[in-house]
Automatic annotation (TrEMBL):
Name of the molecule in the record: DNA replication licensing factor MCM6
Record Pfam families: MCM_N, MCM_OB
Enzyme Commission (EC) number: 3.6.4.12
Job description of the protein: Acts as component of the MCM2-7 complex (MCM complex) which is the replicative helicase essential for 'once per cell cycle' DNA replication initiation and elongation in eukaryotic cells. The active ATPase sites in the MCM2-7 ring are formed through the interaction surfaces of two neighboring subunits such that a critical structure of a conserved arginine finger motif is provided in trans relative to the ATP-binding site of the Walker A box of the adjacent subunit. The six ATPase active sites, however, are likely to contribute differentially to the complex helicase activity.
Similarity comment: Belongs to the MCM family.
Organism: Hirundo rustica rustica
Reaction catalysis annotation: ATP + H2O = ADP + phosphate + H(+)
Highest taxon listed in the record's lineage: Eukaryota
Length: 282
């Protein structure tokens, strides 16, 4: 990975923490914003401008993008996004937020997501191997079970109980994640923190289980299944018995039983089952 590490702190002072810059992801963010700003439809209009204006509505937060448009605009960008989707996805969401704010009066603290559709290749559930972890892919299946919608803690703001320092933007990593250490250089607290729910960021998420359809099932085989996480606008969009296409990223979760607790980081999904962008868990 092409990473640049920059220390935070003044000259001669010990750095409080290190800020990791992912130059590849940042370049994808810039190019994806260029795509949203410049890609035109057959009438010569910016194709995604009207969709971005719809994000002003309180119930909307997901911009649906055709992957075919992205390939037409910049083949190298589309290849990088497809191969490094899990890595660059947060940066694509930042570009979407910038695009929405530039073309609408949206709240500064509102989060936005991007969901892709029209991927050229559809995979079967039994084709989900370790080689596909982290990449953008499209699978089909029949929903056999849905779970209730729960709030998910995406980014936490914590209060140090020793020195009262506020620690913002603590990314949650597959579990309820506390800060490693207080950011106050004279405080060594590593354990005593209080979550400020009013300043933390939450999103709706829902777990569904899908399995192979009868048409995809090899003769004499038992249907295989996979867990799918829907976020934001996608929740409550698929019901048991529905046959859907899902577009998202395959990841491995350390403990699936902790899925309904705060801190499990999953990616976004669109509201439309056939266009949804989601995480596929194995």
């Amino acid at each position: 990975m092409d990473l640049a590490v920059a220390a935070v702190g003044g000259a001669g002072a010990a750095p409080q923490h290190q800020q990791i810059r992912d130059e590849v992801a940042e370049k994808c963010q810039k190019l994806f914003l260029d795509f949203l700003e410049e890609f035109q439809n057959s009438d010569g209009e910016v194709k995604y401008l009207r969709d971005a204006e719809e994000l002003i509505r309180p119930e909307r937060n997901t911009l649906i993008v055709s992957f075919a448009d992205l390939e037409q605009f910049n083949q190298q960008l589309s290849t990088t996004i497809q191969e490094e989707f899990y890595r660059v996805y947060p940066y694509l969401c930042r570009a979407t937020k910038t695009f929405a704010r530039d073309h609408g009066n949206v709240p500064a603290n509102k989060d936005f997501y991007v969901a892709f559709q029209d991927l050229p290749t559809r995979h079967k559930i039994r084709e989900l191997t370790s080689a596909k972890i982290g990449s953008l892919l499209r699978i089909s299946g029949q929903v056999v079970r849905t779970h209730p919608v729960h709030p998910e803690l995406v980014s936490g703001t914590f209060l140090c109980l020793d020195c009262q320092t506020v620690i913002k933007d603590v990314e949650q990593q597959f579990k309820y994640t506390l800060p490693n250490i207080c950011r106050n250089p004279v405080c060594a607290n590593r354990r005593r923190f209080l979550l400020d729910t009013n300043k933390s960021r939450f999103v709706d998420f829902q777990k569904v289980r899908i399995q192979e359809t009868q048409g995809e099932l090899p003769r004499g085989s038992i249907p295989r299944s996979v867990e799918v996480i829907l976020r934001a606008e996608a929740v409550e969009s698929a019901q048991a018995g529905d046959k859907c296409d899902f577009t998202g990223s395959l990841i491995v979760v350390p403990d699936v039983s902790q899925l309904s607790t705060p801190g499990l980081l999953i990616l976004v999904a669109s509201r439309r089952p056939s266009r949804s962008c989601c995480e596929l868990l194995s």
